[in-house]
């Protein structure tokens, strides 16, 4: 019943996103497939291989056409499913129902959720978490019961997760870690049978991509120093999940804060359960830190073991506090009244601090998430409006623009805000936007920057205003106007 209330609250909070428009990478989803087999082919122009996402895109398009409401409904519904899965997973680690509800409540409104819920383009991360958590749940069930059916479900879910997003590769070392920590029989053949199938699938996909994909397989190749910085900052954001606070901290202080967190972790990581949760979080953070960079959508997975870890520690503290309170309450007082002895006063104060601090910390995480997510709604709504405006105004030129024309677009926004927590607009997919939503098929699209571009203008070559005027005399040039939130033709 309480879980249903959490789901209802989450739906009420996110329901506005159902009316957002398509933006950025969303337009890459509307690829016209000639055959169903095309869904599973490796795209030589993409460093991602996500056939599971392609299948969902295909059926959404076949059933609902390009209607953004149903795509956002799919994203929100998947998030609600993941909230249930986080509750189920938490209950496997912590038997207390209250802690399970708190975990899924914090996950429901974690600050980084805006990308995966507000933006259909991040649905691969939503689905990744769905199959990732399912596979982990059934691995835990198999270790506990030794039932073969749970092993089979784990392997299938793990493969589906890998076919959803490459970052599911962390599931293999995470699963191995759980196996070694919690299984009583360290049988090598059983280990191979369980993990061989998903490992071979990932290796096979990687080899095929190496030979077939034309662009670099890694989104970004980071140096050791930069990857380390990404890892430290990710841990800080996940344990102190308030961007308004952390974004203002100078970079040189991040390692110091991380060391403080490390002291906390050494102090409270006292059993295999909490150790596993930290290892799980570390693997997920490591994967995106060395191949890309910290993004809100990547925190969606990494936040789960951190949240469960915090609740695991909190449950031990509160249980211990209740025990000590019972002992002290029953102990006779030297002064003849309850709580009057120096011993009682000394340990009574210490007794309540862990519980009150835990509640304060959990409220801090929850409120920080709600405030940040609410503020992000404005920018994602604005991104939707900008996209709709551009599509509407570009349709005026359907009859004049030919397939042999080269179109120049100046100062298109990458996002609608200047924050590192972007609300994407034309990050990608602009060609597909023109093709599928405006019915314009230019020979080439060239992006430029001119005048005084904003911090959220897309990266492109800069041309002076005078050169731009000269260019516009013989070419079709559109300039994005910040005040109008759309593009206009330069005449």
Q: What is the H/E order? A: HHHHHHHHHHHHHHHEHEHEE
| Overall average pLDDT | 87
In whole angstroms, how far apart are the ends? 62 Å
In what order do the strands lie side by side in the largest sheet?
Answer: 2-1-3-4
- Counting helices, strands and paired strands, the structural category is mainly alpha
**Molecular shape:** globular
Strand content: under 5%
Q: How many helices does DSSP assign? A: 17
Counting structural domains, the number is 2
* Gyration radius over CA: 26 Å
* Helical content band: 55-70%
Strand segment count: 4
What's the layout of helices and strands?
Layout: H1 2-14, H2 51-64, H3 68-93, H4 97-108, H5 114-118, H6 123-145, H7 148-162, H8 171-182, H9 188-212, H10 224-239, H11 243-246, H12 254-268, H13 272-291, H14 296-330, H15 342-394, E1 406-410, H16 430-438, E2 444-448, H17 465-474, E3 476-481, E4 486-489
Parallel strand pairs: 1-2, 1-3
Antiparallel strand pairs: 3-4
């Amino acid at each position: 019943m309480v879980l249903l209330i959490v789901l209802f609250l989450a739906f009420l909070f996110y329901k506005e996103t159902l009316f957002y428009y398509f933006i950025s990478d969303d337009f890459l989803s509307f690829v016209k497939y000639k055959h169903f087999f095309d869904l599973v082919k490796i795209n030589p122009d993409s460093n991602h291989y996500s056939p599971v996402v392609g299948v969902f895109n295909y059926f959404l398009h076949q059933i609902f056409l390009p209607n953004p409401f149903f795509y956002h409904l799919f994203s929100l519904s998947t998030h609600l499913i993941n909230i249930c899965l986080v509750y189920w997973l938490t209950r496997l680690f912590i038997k207390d129902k209250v802690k399970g509800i708190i975990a899924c409540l914090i996950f429901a409104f974690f600050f980084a959720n805006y990308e995966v819920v507000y933006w259909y383009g991040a649905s691969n991360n939503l689905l990744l978490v769905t199959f990732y958590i399912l596979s982990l749940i059934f691995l835990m069930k198999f270790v506990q019961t030794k039932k073969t059916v749970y092993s089979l479900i784990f392997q299938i879910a793990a493969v589906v997760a890998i076919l959803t997003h490459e970052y599911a590769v962390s599931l293999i070392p995470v699963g191995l870690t759980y196996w070694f920590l919690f299984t009583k029989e360290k049988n090598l053949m059983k280990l191979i049978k369980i993990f061989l199938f998903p490992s071979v699938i990932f290796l096979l996909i990687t080899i095929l991509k190496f030979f077939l994909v034309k662009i670099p397989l890694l989104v970004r190749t980071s140096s050791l120093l930069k990857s380390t910085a990404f890892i430290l900052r990710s841990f800080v954001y996940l344990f102190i999940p308030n961007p308004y606070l952390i974004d203002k901290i100078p970079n040189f202080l991040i390692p110091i804060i991380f060391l403080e967190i490390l002291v906390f972790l050494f102090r409270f990581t006292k059993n295999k359960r909490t150790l596993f949760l930290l290892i799980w979080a570390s693997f997920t953070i490591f994967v995106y830190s060395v191949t890309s960079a910290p993004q809100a959508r990547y925190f969606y997975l990494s936040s789960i073991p951190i949240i469960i870890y915090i609740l695991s520690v909190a449950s031990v503290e509160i249980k211990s506090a209740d025990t000590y309170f019972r002992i002290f309450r029953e102990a006779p007082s030297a002064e003849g009244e309850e709580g009057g002895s120096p011993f009682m006063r000394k340990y009574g104060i210490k007794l309540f601090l862990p519980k009150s601090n835990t509640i304060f910390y959990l409220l801090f995480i929850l409120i920080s998430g709600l405030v940040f997510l609410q503020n992000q709604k404005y920018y994602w709504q604005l991104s939707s409006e900008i996209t709709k405006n551009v599509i509407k105004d570009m349709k005026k030129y359907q009859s004049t623009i030919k397939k042999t024309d080269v179109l120049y677009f100046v100062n298109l926004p990458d996002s609608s805000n200047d924050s590192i927590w972007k609300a994407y607009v034309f990050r990608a997919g602009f060609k597909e936007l023109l093709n599928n939503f405006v019915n314009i098929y230019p020979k080439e699209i060239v992006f430029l920057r001119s005048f005084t571009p904003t911090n959220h203008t897309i990266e492109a070559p800069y041309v002076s205003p005078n050169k731009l005027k000269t260019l516009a005399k013989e070419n079709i040039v559109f300039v994005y106007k910040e005040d109008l939130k759309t593009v206009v033709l330069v005449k």
